[in-house]
Amino acid sequence: MKMYFLAVLFFIAESISAQTVAKMPDSIRHIVDEYNGVITSSSRPSVNKASYIVDSDQVIKDKLIKLALKNDAITAADANITIAEINRKKANSSFLSSISIGGNVNEFVVDNSPQANFFPKYNLNVGIPLDIVARSKQEKHVADQNIIITNAQKELLKKNIKARVLILYATYKEKKHQVELQRIANEDDATGYENAQKDFKDEVISLEQLNKMYRGMILQKAVLVEKERDFDIATIQLEELIGVPVQSVLQ
Q1: Which residue from 246, 231, 240, 248 is spatially nearest to 172, judged by alpha carbons?
Q2: In angstroms, how far is CA 168 from the centroid of its own chain?
Q3: Containing H/E element for 13?
Q4: Within 10 Å of residue 246's Cβ, how many Cβ atoms?
Q5: Which distant-in-sequence residues (6+ apart) come within 8 Å of 119 by Cβ?
Q6: Among 90, 71, 230, which Cα is nearest to 165's?
Q7: Helices 72-92 & 132-201, crossing angle to 10 degrees?
Q8: Which of 97, 141, 104 is nearest to 121 (CA)?
Q9: pLDDT tens figures, 164-222
Q10: Where are the beta strands (DSSP E) in the chain?
């Protein structure tokens, strides 16, 4: 009888457990299954590693721009902003230079004359221009506008420098790639000319054909020299703007 009673209890417990699992949310069931080993590491969704790859070319551009913004033109722009701010502070007290104050002692007082009793002992005068308020307001407004202008000039200069950096860097990469491709082409021409010399010895090709290949190889060497010159110019222009060797940034 006891065994029958235990069997019934076991059956009821399993039924309740099954219902609980069926009502379990998918997110919770996923965690439980992974804990129990139902989901393995191979069945987990893969992470897109490409999304974590840093764009190295963009990093180089940012470094070049940061270096270029340290040049003398930006320093001069900062100095102009400082001067404009100083002039704004001077405009706050410029009205003081328009006020004149004067005074003197009555001559009768100095001479101890009896007439001194009929005149003031001291004379004091203050001169204030009638347009002092308007003039001071205009000077402050001009100083404020100069600050706006100098800041705008600096921002425009920064934009121009950034654009120039990106253009020069794109030119640098283009010229470098052209040199690399031309060197590969020259290596192929040199190999082809060596094979042509063997073919000429074996009387497979004529002397005219051999000379034609030689002239073509020399012409491509001249093209390489021109491309190397263009690459050197592009490097110099970029380094002039950033102030350091390009290779130090690329490394």
Answers
A1: 231
A2: 14
A3: helix 2-22
A4: 19
A5: 106, 108
A6: 71
A7: 180
A8: 104
A9: 999 999 999 999 999 999 999 999 999 999 999 999 898 888 999 999 999 999 999 99
A10: 100-105, 122-127
